[in-house]
Design goal:
The strands form two sheets. This protein has a four-stranded parallel sheet, sandwiched between helices. It has helices at about 10-25, 50-60, 80-90, 105-110, 130-145, 160-170, 200-205, 225-230, 235-240, 270-290, and strands spanning about 35-45, 65-70, 95-100, 115-125, 150-155, 175-180, 205-210, 245-250. Helix 1 (about 10-25) packs across helix 5 (about 130-145), helix 2 crosses helix 10 and helix 5 (about 130-145) crosses helix 6. Helix 4 (about 105-110) links the parallel strand 3 and strand 4. The mean pLDDT is about 95. The chain is built from ten helices and eight strands. Helices cover about 35% and strands about 15% of the residues.
Length: about 290
């Protein structure tokens, strides 16, 4: 695999392979090994905690050399294009660049013209493939597969690259994915979704994925934080009525008291920190494939 850019470009077999590989790393079936000759660069043009640190830990676990180029210290601030930056990065000896970027489509446009491998660590509103992979690993661990499940995704769907990549991934398996977006965020952009009742999704899903309200991507949201929790969030009443055996996921960072109540965090259905932990193994699997063993 030269690049890891989108879930759409991966087959179900590719995904199964990555999930199995991640599990082997998690179980210690593949020992840590040294790829000291490999150099990987992190170039994040948007903020991150989980993705940034888990790629760093994943590289270190694999024995891969990990470097960071901060936007403000780079010649991108002098107007150098990302394409030219990456050509120079490759000339310096880097095999792969892990990139988070707001602009959509650039990575796919430039990937084929570059010798360096690109790993998408979050792209605008459209792609977060490594998040979808770690979510799939979390669901797979719980239910021993990704088929026959009811999965509900609730929140700011139109602005969510997590929702987009998760829907792309889960639609390759035989599970039912339902989404709900509050009317205050407008109509769903993707017409393939039908209107759903939020409480029906909470009550009937095996997996409930709650999304962060992305306040930074909105001018104004016409619902207060308290009202949001009451109308749409995972509040105590909804938490008590979740389906037996179900789990709750959130990609983080979460807005406490908005899309989730505090009580979720200590509830036995909560998998938020398990998702973060699985992020390391998911990213080890991605790096191993991209760096070619
Ligand atoms: N889930 C996620 O992408 O979190 P970060 O923005 O902290 O990386």
């Amino acid at each position: 695999m030269k690049n890891f850019l989108s879930i759409k470009s991966l087959s179900k077999e590719d995904l199964d392979h990555l999930i199995v590989l991640a599990r082997k790393f998690k179980n210690g079936d593949i020992g840590l090994y040294s790829k000291k000759s490999k150099h990987v660069l992190k170039l994040f043009l948007e903020p991150s905690t989980r993705t940034a640190l888990s790629f760093e830990i994943a590289c270190k676990n694999l024995g891969v050399n990990f470097s960071i180029l901060d936007l403000e210290d780079s010649s991108l601030t002098k107007g150098e294009s990302i394409l030219e930056t990456l050509k120079n990065v490759h000339a310096l000896g880097f095999e792969a660049a892990i990139i988070r970027i707001k602009e959509e489509g650039i990575l796919a446009d430039i990937a084929d013209t570059l010798d360096i491998s690109l790993i998408n660590a979050g792209e605008g509103k459209i792609e977060h493939p490594s998040q979808a992979l770690l979510d799939a690993i979390t669901i797979n661990d719980e239910f021993k597969g990704l088929n026959g499940l009811k999965i509900g995704i609730i929140g700011d769907i139109n602005h969510s690259r997590v929702a987009s990549s998760n829907v792309d991934l889960l639609s390759k398996f035989d599970s039912e994915v339902r989404v709900f977006q509050p009317s205050e965020f407008g109509e769903l952009n993707d017409q393939k979704y039908k209107p759903e009742d939020v409480d029906s999704i909470y009550k009937n899903s095996d997996v409930v994925m709650v999304l962060r309200n992305q306040y930074e991507r909105h001018q104004n949201i016409d619902v207060s934080k308290d009202q949001y929790l009451e109308k749409y969030g995972l509040n105590i009443k909804r938490l008590q009525n979740l389906k037996k055996g179900s789990i709750v996921m959130h990609p983080g960072p979460f807005n406490r008291g908005v899309e989730i109540c505090d009580e979720v965090l200590t509830h036995d259905k909560c998998r938020f920190y398990k998702q973060v932990e699985n992020g390391v193994y998911a990213r080890m699997a991605i790096l191993k494939e991209v760096l070619n063993g």
